[in-house]
Every structure is written in C-alpha cells, then in structure tokens.
Amino acid sequence: MEKKIYERPHIVRFETGMPGKFGMRNDLPPTTHIDGVAVSELVTRFGSPLFVLSENSIRTAYRKLYKAFSTRYPKVQFAWSYKTNYLSAVCNIFHQEGSWAEVVSGFEYDKAISNGVDPRKIIFNGPAKTREELVKATENGSLIHIDHLDELYLLIDVAGSVSQKPRVAIRVNMDTGIYPMWDRFGFNYENGQAWDALNKIMHSGKLDLMGLHTHIGTFIMSANAYAVAASKLADLARSLQQKFNHHLKYLDLGGGFASKNTLKGSYLPGSDTNPSFNEYAEAISSALINSHFTQGELPLLILETGRALIDEAGYILSTVIANKRMSTGRRATIIDAGVSLLFTAFWYQHQITVAQGNSQYREDTSLYGPLCMNIDCIRDSINLPLMNVNDHVVIHNTGAYNLTQWMQFIHLRPNVVLIDEKSNAHIVRNKEDQDSVNGNEMIPEHLAKFE
Amino acid sequence: MKINQNLAVSESGFLFNPGTGESFTVNPIGAEIIALFRKGMTQDQVIDSITDQYHVDRNTFEKDLQDFTGILKTYSLLKQDD
C-alpha cells in the first residue's frame, strides 16, 4: 500500500478577541521556482544555504527606475553603488544597462577599473581616500567627491603634482526634514560650510568643479526629503552662477531610496507603504525643473540608487535543520542560513516562504540560524506552514548589502548563483573552502607543534 | 496516556472540549493520533500505526509525537498515566 504524505501533528487553540487593526493575509504561497528554476534543483546542484540572484529582476528594476526619471527629467545618469553589491557579475549587469560606477574606497575603485568601467565614469565617494588613491583618480579623470576640508587641501596639493586638473564635486549634508539627519558626510549646507568649501575650490583655481553631491540617508520613507535636497543643491548651483559665472555639469542626489522590504516595527508591509520609484522621481524632477535653471541649463541628474535596485533580486535558499519548542511553548525552527549571511535581518522583517507543498496549517514560529550565538535570529515571529527537517525555505529581498557585509563566522560562506534571462543558473562566486580562511594565516615556528 | 474522553472531534479537525468550553483546530494526522489514543492505544502502538501509514521514519515521528502530546497536556486534553 502506498504510504500517505506525512505532516507534523498540529493543534492550535482558537483565540477570540478583537481582530487586529492591521490584520492581513500572511499565507503566502510556496516559492517552488525562481525565474523558472526549481528551488529543489538549485539546492541539489549548488548546496544549501545558497544565495540566488535574478538577472531579470535586476534589469527590470533598473529600467523601471530609469523610465520613472527619464520621462520627467531630460538628462539622467545612474551610477551603480558598488558597496550595495559588488559581485562583478552584478556590477556588469548595471554597466550593461548604462550605469556608471559609484565607489567609496580604493578597493572598490580598483574593482570598477578591473570590471572595465571607463575611469571618467567612476564617481569616487567615501570619507577616507588616500593620497595615492586621489592621484590615481585624478590621473584617470574620475569624478572625486570631496568629503571634508582635509581632503580638499590634500587634493589641491595633489593637483600641483599631476598634469591633469582633478574633476571634483563636494558632498553636501543638509536638513531635509527627516530624522536622523545625516551630517557625517561632506560639508553642511545650513551653517555655510558647503558654500565656504565651494569658494575655496573656485579661488584655488586648481580643481575643476563639476557638480554637487548629497547623500541624505538610507531607506528614506519620504520622497519629499529629496525635493528639499534637490532645491538646496540648486540654490548652491545658482550662487556659483551668480558669483563666479560657473555652471555646474551635474547634481548628484546620491542613494537612499527604500526597497520593498519591511522595516522592523512596521505594521504594514514595505511593499504597501514605501514610496514608489515614480514618487521619488516626481519629487526630485519637479524640484529641479521648478528651480532657477532654464531649460538649456538643467544639469545632468545623477543617482546612486543601490538598495532599491537590487534588494528584490536576491534570495537565500535555506534548509530546515531542526524544529524545537522553547520554554514558553513557542515553536522554533532552526535553518542553515544565519545572520552572518543575512546582515539585514537586524533591520528587516524579511519575507520568508516555504519551497515545497504548502500545508494549510500554520504556526507562529521563531526562525533561528545555525550560529552558536543568541543574536542569530532571522525572524522573531513569523507565521509559517508546518515544516519538516530537510524542507527548504526561501528568504526574499536579500540582494542589497548582504553580499558585501556578510561575514565568515563558524561556517564557510556558500555559493552565489545568478539565474540569467534564459533561466540558466551560473555560479558567480564560489563557496569557500578551508583554504579561503586559513590560507592567509601563518603560524610562528615555536607554535607549530604541540604534544 | 489518557485522553479526555469528553472531547468532540469533527471530521474536519474541529475539536471542542465541553469541560472548558475551549475550541481547537487540529490537522488530520493530529486528529488521527487523538482518535488512536481514545481507542486506548499506547504511545508505542500509535507510533507503529502512524509509521505504517505515512512516509515518516520512526525517530522523526517519535520526536514530533512527543512535542504534540506535550501540547495536548498543556491544553489539558491529555493526562499522563498515573
């Protein structure tokens, strides 16, 4: 006789009371396939846990954001934020779509060069550029965004030792009505630091002032903050026109657009509450078009959007290691992907679905990773179908920051796979082995042996 | 194991305890286990019966049954034999 499919026995008591104001459906269907490839096949071929990236999702997001801006503003340029995800395969998708590179360190700068980016299309941000890096970026004609006065003076000094004139912008921080106000990057607008720095640059005659940059924060839930930022940059540009008859080539509004992830503590999902691409585009474009610029004067608008372009393209596939019950009676499930791979679990309530046949029964579960650390909690509380050991789960919206901020802790880091537009899966970063960790270590001779 | 014999269990998995007025929902395999206990089966007999019928190894089911009976005890639906 054919045996029946097994599901864990489950009982739940009916609770009566007022329904929650924010009661929503949470019985998401299983994610059996990603871009046409079966999750079970991916895990069998490439192991578990596994990072999966969707090329189709990346290109779709890019084109959607570009359309939102290019239909509202005449000159738009995106620069891919390397720190968000600097796997070369990912960077090159953005470069194929037309993105420049936005880097924040010498490591990222060299990576963009080795990816084949035209150095004149690299924006060099970041608060810690060395003299050698500034010389290299100057000689290459890259766009250097000056973060502080020490860097400004250093760059003026560098300008005296190289034949090219550094192409620069300053980074401007400002009050855009949001909290917290980011004031650690660049020169402040309100207290006049930014205007002072611009005067120093113009009077030095050694730097080619190309534009202005701001990065007002991250995961900005108010599109209007960008309108304020754009207006303030436009005001600085007008002051430069009036005083020096200097016309800037570009205004760079940085990054910070929210993805569709749900921040911890939110009642409603991010997909419902976070501003859309159109809302951001409308705020920024309207502010610039309504400013003093005449039609022919409108500067190039640069955006360094990272998170909102890549978050939804990333998945982590993981496997159930164990089910257990906590002292309070709560169900807990341990999976093989922890916070060492999913740094963003500290910020987001990641959407998680099962990857196989869905049980109609659900239970409130705490989802823990495999680390021997109490903080290794992927979700404090999530309503999931009944899962057995060796079942798979899919963690959604993991494309931003996790592949740059992940850490090797206790376990080796897994394969990263990209699914192309024809549903072919490619490894774009190999899983680590013992040598990946131990290869750079050296043991002094007196410590080489022991009884 | 001694199951509360007053429980009303519907075919669709609705369970009512007239002693406390509490209602529960139980999945089909859970309802089957409760029915087996009501017939007076021991824990080992329940394990034999379920592992004969379902795609599950003995260790996995024994662990899940232990968890399930723990919850039944918490809800006062099941008592440990004296």
Question: Brief overview, please?
Answer:
The complex is a heterodimer of chains A (451) and B (82). By secondary structure, chain A is α/β, with parallel strands linked by helices.
> What structural category characterises the helix and strand content of chain B?
alpha+beta
What quaternary form is this?
A: heterodimer
Number of helices of chain B: 3
In total, the number of domains of chain A comes to 2
Taken together, the total number of domains of chain B comes to 1
Q: What is the terminal-to-terminal distance of chain A?
A: 59 Å
Number of strands of chain A: 21
Stretches of chain B where pLDDT is under 50 for at least 5 consecutive residues are none
Radius of gyration of CA atoms of chain B, rounded to a whole number:
12 Å
Average the pLDDT over all residues of chain B and give the rounded result: 90
Shape of chain B: globular
CATH homologous superfamily caption of the largest domain in chain A: Alanine racemase
Q: For the report, how would you describe the main beta sheet of chain A?
A: 9 strands, mixed
Describe the structure.
The complex is a heterodimer of chains A (451) and B (82). Chain A is α/β, with parallel strands linked by helices and 451 residues long. Chain A has two domains: 33-52 and 312-432, Lyase, Ornithine Decarboxylase, Chain A, domain 1, CATH 2.40.37; 55-310, Alpha-Beta Barrel (TIM Barrel). Helix content of chain A is 28%, strand content 22%. In chain A, the strands form three sheets. In chain A, strands 4, 14, 15, 16, 17, 18, 19, 20 and 21 form a nine-stranded mixed sheet that branches. Chain A has an eight-stranded parallel β-barrel with strand order 5-6-7-8-9-11-12-13, surrounded by seven helices. In chain A, strand 14 (314-325) and strand 15 form a beta hairpin. The longest helix of chain A is centred in the middle third of the chain and has 21 residues, at 224-244. Chain B is of the alpha+beta class and 82 residues long. Chain B has one domain (2-77). Helices cover 48% and strands 18% of the residues of chain B. Chain B has helices at residues 28-38, 43-53, 58-74; strands at residues 2-3, 8-9, 14-17, 22-26, 78-79. In chain B, the strands form two sheets. In chain B, strands 2-3-4 form a three-stranded antiparallel sheet. Chain B has a two-stranded antiparallel ribbon with strand order 1-5. The chains are: A alpha/beta (451), B alpha+beta (82). Chain A binds chain B through residues 3-14, 323, 325, 329, 359-361, 386, 388-389, and chain B through 15, 22-30, 33, 53-56, 60-61, 64-65, 67-68, 70-72, 74-75, 77. Strand 1 (11-13) of chain A pairs antiparallel with strand 4 (22-26) of chain B, so a sheet runs across the interface.
